[in-house]
Design goal:
The protein has helices at 50-61, 65-75, 97-105, 153-172, 188-194, 199-202, 204-224, 237-240, 243-255, 322-337, 439-447; strands at residues 81-83, 113-117, 180-184, 229-233, 265-268, 342-346, 384-388. By secondary structure, the chain is α/β, with parallel strands linked by helices. The radius of gyration is 21 Å and the shape is globular. The protein starts with 49 loop residues before the first helix and ends in a 5-residue tail after the last helix.
């Protein structure tokens, strides 16, 4: 993974205050205790990366009319920054962890930054678009040999010493200076919960890499940087929403013996397009389970909370939208892990709900629109800390077989040639590699945005 329809006449502010709460402006609220109490996003000014804004500027300069207006609004929405290679940890520019923290801490007040921690050995085992730089075993060309599944001792040593430890060291230098939230390793544990039949994911080396790597990351973050709000990636409702998948995911977390009492909760829909939903349904669990049966078996199908553009409820999945998935996650975490978890939901690209022929498709989706801007004004603030653009709209999900330059893409994933993917239809441009700016896509996201 690497990380509008309607006219806009809205100016988006990046402070997420609740007017009923008084605050001391001299120090970010989340830094006043050795750990996280309450919503870490509440009352913060959220950081907007000038690197991302410069990318938006390039697209704005070649746009006109309502698309240009939407792009200008999108430019000023805070979004997360992905630390997806070791080279992004240290440095003085806003393309690095250290540089971003320096910039955010220089503001008055210091601005809250959200990072994606993303560099496990054998990363992205199911897909190819964002395979990582650390391997359990390397091929001669330094790509990962996923057929090697004996163990991952060398890969984990590299991960700890050259990615995790330096990441923590940089964070520690900014203790008391800037509020931070971190999403840990998107797609990794969900792959272990559901894709064990794929030898790239289910083999012993990849499983060791993911379980030991994430355990190390979470324990380091919660013990050495307890002021950082930690969210573990929990995929989305169209992936883990089925009861067996969700319980499997929670059981993996339990078996890993993570310090879940020090973790704020989970991140949903990271870099994906699942519908947010208009409302969370009442909780009416099926007999003997935690699964909410409110929308299942055709019940309440006319109610707005049961709207089901991906036809998940028809497949006995109660997570027909991400609000309902949040409820499933929280209840499962309470039941299996014994914790009161909270969530953040990626709303960067789910402004349109019915644009896909198959909701299993995830790569550069045609007809998508930007969604609700980053905010703590959520439908269920008791459990949802924020809607947040965890992947900046405009960053590609993955390349087409041929790059815009005409060269063959070395990371081509066949899912990026799906019937729903930009670049698969005649007349559409080739897509760049994951994380690169995709001008055609960001203009479509702006054109079809629903940011209200």
């Amino acid at each position: 993974i690497l990380a509008i329809a309607g006219n806009l006449a809205i100016i988006f502010a990046s402070r997420v205050d609740s007017p009923s709460i008084a605050r001391d402006r001299t120090l970010p609220r989340a830094l006043k205790a050795s750990g996280i109490t309450g919503n870490p996003f509440e009352g913060q000014v959220l950081y907007k990366n000038p690197v991302n804004q410069a990318q938006f500027d390039e697209s704005i300069n070649s746009a006109s009319g309502p698309v240009r207006t939407s792009l200008k609004a999108m430019r000023d929405v805070p979004s997360a920054y992905w630390i997806d290679v070791k080279a992004k940890i240290r440095g003085n520019t806003e393309r690095s962890l250290q540089g971003i923290l320096q910039d955010a801490s220089s503001k008055s007040p210091a601005e809250m930054v959200v990072f994606i921690w993303y560099d496990l050995p054998n990363r992205d085992c199911k897909a190819k678009a964002s395979n990582g730089e650390i391997c359990c075993k390397y091929n001669p060309d330094r790509t990962c040999d996923y057929t090697w599944q004996l163990e991952c001792n060398d890969g984990l040593k590299e991960y700890k010493e050259t990615y995790a430890d330096p990441f923590i060291e940089v964070l520690q230098k900014f203790k008391g200076k800037v509020p931070v939230a971190i999403v840990v390793e998107p797609d990794s544990l969900p792959n272990l919960a559901t894709n064990t039949g794929n030898p790239r994911c289910g083999g012993a080396a990849t499983r060791q890499a993911y379980e030991e790597g994430i355990a190390y990351a979470v324990k380091q973050l919660t013990s050495k940087t307890p002021w950082v709000a930690v969210y573990i990636d929990a995929a989305h409702g169209g992936w883990l929403g089925w009861q067996n998948n969700l319980v499997g995911f929670m059981t993996i977390l339990k078996d890993m013996k993570l310090p879940m009492n020090k973790v704020r909760g989970f991140a949903q829909n990271v870099a994906n397009y699942q519908p947010l939903g208009e409302a969370m349904c009442p909780y009416e669990p099926d007999s003997g389970t935690n699964r909410n049966g409110y929308c299942l078996n055709g019940r309440h199908s006319s109610e707005v909370c049961c709207a089901d553009p991906c036809s998940l409820a028809a497949e006995w999945n109660p997570a027909n939208n991400e609000l309902n998935y949040a409820q499933e996650l929280i209840n499962a975490a309470k039941s299996v892990l014994g914790i009161d978890a909270h969530v953040i939901i990626d709303t960067g690209r789910n402004g349109v709900t019915d644009m896909r022929k198959s909701c299993a498709n995830w790569c550069n989706i045609r007809g998508a629109g930007a969604g609700k801007p980053s905010t703590t004004n959520t439908a269920e603030p008791a459990i949802i800390d924020a809607y947040f653009w965890l992947k900046t709209p405009g960053e590609s999900d993955g390349c087409t077989a041929t790059l815009p330059s005409g060269e063959v893409c070395p990371r081509f994933d066949s899912d990026c040639q799906s019937i729903d993917s930009i670049g698969s239809a005649v007349g559409e441009p080739h897509a760049p590699e994951a994380g690169r700016w995709f001008d055609y896509q960001v203009k479509q996201l702006a054109e079809l945005a629903h940011m209200d």
